Amino acid sequence: MLRLPRLLNLVSTAYLQYRARDTKMQFEFVKDMPRAAHTDMPIDISFLLGKMVFVWMIMLLFPVILSNLVYEKQQKLRTIMKMHGLGDVTYWTISHCYFLLLSLLYMFFLVFFGSCAGIKLFTLNDYRVQFVVYFAYMNLQISFAFLMATYFSNVRTASVVAYLFTIGSGYFGEYLFRPIFEDMSLSRSWTTLMEFFPPFSLYRIVYEFSPPPSPLYRTDFSGLHWGDLGDGKNGMKDILIIMALEWATFLLLTFFLDEFGTLRNGIRKMASVCHSSVDGSSQASQKQTIQLQEFEYSVEMDRTDVLREREIVEQLLQESDGSYSVICDNLKKVYHAKDGNPEKIAVTELSLYMQRGQCFGILGPNGAGKTSLISMLTGFTKPTSGTAYINGMDIRSDMGKIYTGIGVCPQFDLLWETLTGREHLLFYGRLKNLRCAALDRAVEQSLKNVRLFDGGVADKRVAEYSGGMKRRLSVAISLIGDPKVVYMDEPSSGLDPASRRALWNAVMSAKQNTAIILTTHSMEEAEALCDRIGIMVNGSLQCIGNSKELKAKYGGTYVLTVTTAAAEEEVVEQLVRSLCPAANRVYRISGTQKFEMPKQGLRISQVFHAMQHAKTWLNISAWGLSDATLEDAFIKVASESDISSL
Ligand SMILES: Nc1ncnc2c1ncn2[C@@H]1O[C@H](COP(=O)(O)OP(=O)(O)OP(=O)(O)O)[C@@H](O)[C@H]1O
């Protein structure tokens, strides 16, 4: 066993002799360094492994951090956290602290086990120096990952790029940075400039911490001590300054890019803000004229209830009445032409108001603009023109404050697969300022309300949930903490009847203190939950009212169904026309006929008497009279609006 170290020493010496032949420059450089000769220094594994390997080991967390950040972005978890009140500064601070803790733990174990194994890179240098330098580098690495994360939207791409970057960084450090650094004929400022690239800073750190490169020309290197930090020769002071400057710059850049998307966008937006503040008055009056023209144009197409709603909104805005939960003022969303697709007006000058204690339902066919409207109200996209006031605050400027008082159930479930249902609710409950016992109570109640409490479901990871369970959890998240305004985009899609009923009950009880805005394709749901309903087609509201009003106005017919022998069809038709000359036969199939009879001038009792009497002389096997449904009204409004927009 004792022969093994000697053998290792022999092999390594041979290897070093070979390398020293090729690295004469390096040898001369090392000779110049202030490290006194010393001959019995044992061979060190850090030299055998090479600095490149240590650079890789220290950078190993970089791909992990980047993938985590991009995952939250790709899954839109970041957006949903923001919508529930998690501010940008808080998000970045928490993320930074979390990754810093992780990085420090990782470095602690790396240095600890490295020291136990006797690796000189760790044992020779003062641990205080190592802590300061690695702490600074870890901060820089995290801020660099933050910056990189603003450019990626796909986890897989981000991971691959991050691993390639890590491998490439070690490689370029060894074969590009080191030769330049060791070339004494080159000015030091070149290497200082290169150290602005974070992995090269790290390579320099590893280089300075490592024992001399060749034991053939052994020097008495006893590692870096606390006092050496300020010594200009080892360059640690410069590197620490560079890393601190870069850390701050990367964080600022991240905030900037996070807010504006790209540097160009940000500069353009900032320039336009300055420009508009210079000649704001002339632009404002110009904008007013444009809005007026657009308004006059759209008034012709609007219906009376929509017009009345617009008038009320204008009155409320003039009175500055802050008691209304939501006021939309001429909201418009245009998606600009992109990738060969033409420009799309998703929402057209929409004005409406919503009160606390009410549920407002937005119905509309696919592509009507419901999600675009909710996206604007939740700050997910910015309106092209117009605005909305949520609890008296403007969505254009106060979104940060608005988020603290709203709840959102988006169309697609935005959940962490690795967290349990209970953990989700605890997290969002805390964001809504619930603490201790109040938080536990609220979480338990929420879980019970959406039937996720019993059978330990609450403590299962979301990855094990069915689609319906995830949907119910999303609804529970939107309602926790009693938000003043709640947006629900098709909350019951994919739910079984019992779960849907439970969800409706939860919404009904939450409605008392909240204004709920709900989009749905279920007429039954709209009738059960909504106090007012607006039907949207092609981006604009076609009608507003409660379900009774809409049915009366747009479904203004009774539906009579009669089944007789096929030979008696003509007689039945004559009978119906004698009751209501304007009756319209919808279909006739082997004796069964369906008629729509306008309500005007028609009494139900008259129809009943006529049918009872007809039974005495006709072979009527079945008949029925029903009022028009909300679905009838919806189909009528949608088809009429579609025709008028052609
Ligand atoms: N990011 C986008 N870029 C371009 N067009 C878009 C974008 N998002 C939506 N649209 C278009 O805007 C219109 C309104 O879409 P939106 O998703 O708001 O409708 P919706 O009423 O919510 O539909 P659904 O009921 O199917 O969810 C559609 O024609 C859609 O194709």
UniProtKB/TrEMBL annotation:
Cited Gene3D superfamilies: P-loop containing nucleotide triphosphate hydrolases
Signal peptide stretch: none
InterPro entries cross-referenced by the UniProt entry: AAA+_ATPase, ABC2_TM, ABC_transporter-like_ATP-bd, ABC_transporter-like_CS, ABCA, P-loop_NTPase
Keyword Cell membrane applies: no
Membrane protein topology class: Multi-pass membrane protein
Family membership: Belongs to the ABC transporter superfamily. ABCA family. CPR flippase (TC 3.A.1.211) subfamily.
Keyword Transferase included in the entry's annotation: no
GO molecular function: ABC-type transporter activity; ATP binding; ATP hydrolysis activity; lipid transporter activity
Protein name: ABC transporter domain-containing protein
Subcellular location: Membrane
Pfam families the record matches: ABC2_membrane_3, ABC_tran, ABCA12_C
Transmembrane segments: 53-71, 91-119, 131-152, 158-177
GO cellular component, one term: membrane
